[in-house]
Structures are given as structure tokens and as C-alpha cells.
């Protein structure tokens, strides 16, 4: 009998669903084993048919999101938080920094394309006060972060789920797939705003560019640093960051960079705090990050109006 798969799209960009479609022949390889019973980007199925595996994209931002994820939980046997928005809030989680009234004021009252300053009417799903990852609302069986998850890891996860186990937790970071070498370069300056550097063989940290590879889960084969662009952490935090309450992106990156370049840890930390919306962009709505004793995201990047 084929395994039934149901998917749902909450507050996300649909990129995670497109990533499933992008599996191409990997999806065809599974065709004899799976039956999709609900896929918002492909099928007009508005109900929640029973399924073996439920795949949820996006974070919880609205009352609709909350009800939808509860329907998913009730209708599937195994629930997968799919993509960094579902697992950590992802880019959708930036709303965690602001309460809903601040968001409305910014977007509808002051938005340049909304000349009449009209707000959504009662027919639109009500925004909740904040943004939360889905495991804050329902029990989740597996987490598959990535923005979006790479086709290789999606196919591997589906294979493991169909075999009755599930995706394994990786201890590796993006650095493990990067061929650049970390080497000490005392006297290197901190390059604020830079995303690349001249030497293609040398680690970006050694060249004064803050690359998040060493604090980011290995779920992508490191395409960005391999193409010369600093990792921005879209797979979400690596295991050491998640496991240890006092270990944060800021401290790890500042310590490594200072060792490699001689730039003071305080300077790197101050830069990361000033650019918190960039360096914490994918995970700031996750309690695993904002509840760390050393993290003050609202102070660094917010408007001070958030309610828990
Ligand atoms: S994780 Fe990335 S690709 Fe997936 S919904 Fe969120 S923003 Fe889009
Ligand atoms: S920090 Fe970035 S550039 Fe350096 S090894 Fe890790 S992934 Fe590569
Ligand atoms: S290298 Fe970093 S930014 Fe690039 S895809 Fe991987 S996790 Fe995302």
C-alpha cells in the first residue's frame, strides 16, 4: 500500500513546497511508494485527509496558521516541520521582534503603496501577537530545516520516513563541506557589510568576513562559501548552538575570528549585535535562540513592543 503524504503551507514563502516539486526524478523514484493527498501548490484540496506523513512549511503567524497546523497534527501519523520557517521561525520569524500593531502601522498606515491606509478587513485571518515555530503549538516528530531544504536531504528524509525511521540529526556544520582553509592572518581588518573576499582558498573568517558556516547545520553542501559568498545561516543553528544554552552564534564567531585575525572579540560581537536582523535572521523566533542568557535580540534589533 502506498504511504499517503499531506502537506500544508503556513506563514512561509512557498519555497519549501517548490523544493518538493524540484525533486524531479527523485520524486518519480518514489512514485510507486507514495500518494500525495494534499499539496496546496499542486492540488485543490482544502480539507485535511488522513495521511501517514504530514509535511508543514512555514511558521505560525495567524489564527489560520494555528488552526491549520492543529488540523495537520490530528490528521497525520508523523508530522515533519519542513524548512527553517517551520523549525525556527525562519525569515517569517522577523515579526517576532514586533507586535502585530507595530507591523500593521508600518505596513498599512505608512506603506507607500497603500495610499488609503486601509487595513485588512474582518475576512482576513487575524494576526497573532507574535511568530512561533510549529513545535511551540503542536507535537512535531521530525525537524528538517533548510531555506528551503536541499533536494538531496528531502529525498533522503522521505526515504528514511518511508523505511520507518526518520531523518538523522547531523553533528556537522556548513564548514564540514567547505574546502576553504582556516588560517591565521594577524592584522586582518573586520570587513563590515562584505559578503566575499579575494582569496578563494582561504576561509572567509580569516579574511575578515563574518561567515556563519561554523554555527550552521550542515544541510546544503556549503554552496555559498564554495561560490565565494559568506554563509548567512539559512539551515538554522548547528547542534552545539542548540544544545548549550550559553553558546551563541556571537560568541563562537567572535572567538574563532579573533583567533584567526586578531580582531577583538568585542568588535565582532558589537558588529553582530548591530546587524542582528541579518545574523539571527533565520532563527530569532525560536526560544532555543532568544531564550539564551547571552542573547538580547529585542534590545539589539527590535522596537521594544513585543509581548510573549
Ligand atoms: S524556510 Fe525559506 S524557503 Fe521555506 S518557507 Fe521559509 S523562507 Fe520560504
Ligand atoms: S567559516 Fe565559512 S568560509 Fe570558513 S570554512 Fe566555514 S563555511 Fe568555509
Ligand atoms: S551555505 Fe549557509 S546560507 Fe548557503 S545554503 Fe548553506 S546554510 Fe544556507
3D structure, described in words:
The chain has helices spanning about 15-20, 25-30, 65-75, 85-90, 100-110, 150-160, 225, 240-245, 250-260, 265-275, 275-280, 285-290, 295-300; strands spanning about 5-10, 35-40, 50-55, 60, 75-80, 125-130, 140-145. It has about 300 residues and is an alpha/beta fold. It folds into two domains: about 5-160, Rossmann fold (3-Layer(aba) Sandwich), CATH 3.40.50; about 175-275, no CATH class. α9 (about 250-260) crosses α10 (about 265-275). The termini are far apart. The model has no long low-confidence stretch (mean pLDDT about 95). It binds iron/sulfur cluster (3 copies).
Do you know the CATH architecture of the largest domain? Answer: 3-Layer(aba) Sandwich
Calculate Rg over CA atoms.
Answer: 20 Å
What does the overall shape look like? Answer: globular
Number of domains: 2
Our count of helices gives: 13
Name the poorly predicted regions.
none
Bound molecules: iron/sulfur cluster
Q: Say what the CATH topology of the largest domain is.
A: Rossmann fold
- Give the fraction of residues assigned to helices: 25-40%
Reading the helices and strands in chain order gives: EHHEEEHEHHEEHHHHHHHH
pLDDT averaged residue by residue: 93
Structural class: alpha/beta
Strand percentage lies at: 5-15%
- The termini sit apart by 45 Å
CATH secondary-structure class of the largest domain? Alpha Beta
Amino acid at each position: 500500500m502506498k504511504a499517503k503524504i499531506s502537506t500544508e503551507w503556513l506563514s512561509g514563502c512557498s519555497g519549501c513546497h517548490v523544493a518538493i516539486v524540484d525533486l524531479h526524478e527523485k520524486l518519480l523514484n518514489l512514485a510507486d511508494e507514495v500518494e500525495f493527498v494534499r499539496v496546496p501548490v499542486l492540488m485543490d484540496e482544502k480539507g485535511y485527509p488522513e495521511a501517514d506523513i504530514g509535511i508543514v512549511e512555514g511558521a505560525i503567524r495567524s489564527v489560520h496558521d494555528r488552526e491549520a497546523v492543529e488540523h495537520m497534527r490530528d490528521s497525520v501519523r508523523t508530522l515533519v516541520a519542513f524548512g527553517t520557517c517551520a523549525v525556527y521561525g525562519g525569515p517569517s520569524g522577523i515579526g517576532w521582534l514586533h507586535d502585530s500593531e507595530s507591523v500593521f502601522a508600518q505596513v498599512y498606515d505608512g506603506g507607500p503603496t497603500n495610499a488609503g491606509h486601509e487595513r485588512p478587513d474582518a475576512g482576513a485571518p487575524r494576526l497573532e501577537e507574535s511568530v512561533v515555530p510549529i513545535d511551540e503549538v503542536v507535537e512535531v516528530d521530525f525537524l528538517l530545516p533548510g531555506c528551503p531544504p536541499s533536494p538531496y536531504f528531502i529525498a533522503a528524509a522521505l526515504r528514511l520516513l518511508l523505511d520507518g525511521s526518520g531523518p538523522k540529526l547531523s553533528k556537522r556544520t556548513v564548514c564540514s563541506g567547505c574546502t576553504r582553509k582556516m588560517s591565521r592572518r594577524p592584522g586582518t581588518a573586520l570587513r563590515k557589510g562584505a559578503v566575499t573576499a579575494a582569496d578563494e582558498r582561504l576561509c572567509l573568517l580569516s579574511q575578515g568576513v563574518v561567515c556563519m558556516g561554523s554555527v550552521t547545520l550542515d544541510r546544503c553542501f556549503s554552496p555559498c562559501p564554495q561560490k565565494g559568498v559568506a554563509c548567512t545561516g539559512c539551515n538554522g543553528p548547528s547542534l552545539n548552538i542548540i544544545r548549550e544554552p550559553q553558546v551563541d552564534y556571537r560568541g563562537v564567531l567572535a572567538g574563532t575570528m579573533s583567533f584567526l585575525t586578531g580582531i577583538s572579540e568585542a568588535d565582532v560581537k558589537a558588529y553582530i549585535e548591530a546587524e542582528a536582523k541579518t545574523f539571527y535572521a533565520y532563527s530569532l523566533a525560536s526560544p532555543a535562540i532568544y531564550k539564551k542568557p547571552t542573547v538580547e535580540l529585542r534590545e539589539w534589533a527590535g522596537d521594544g513592543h513585543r509581548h510573549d
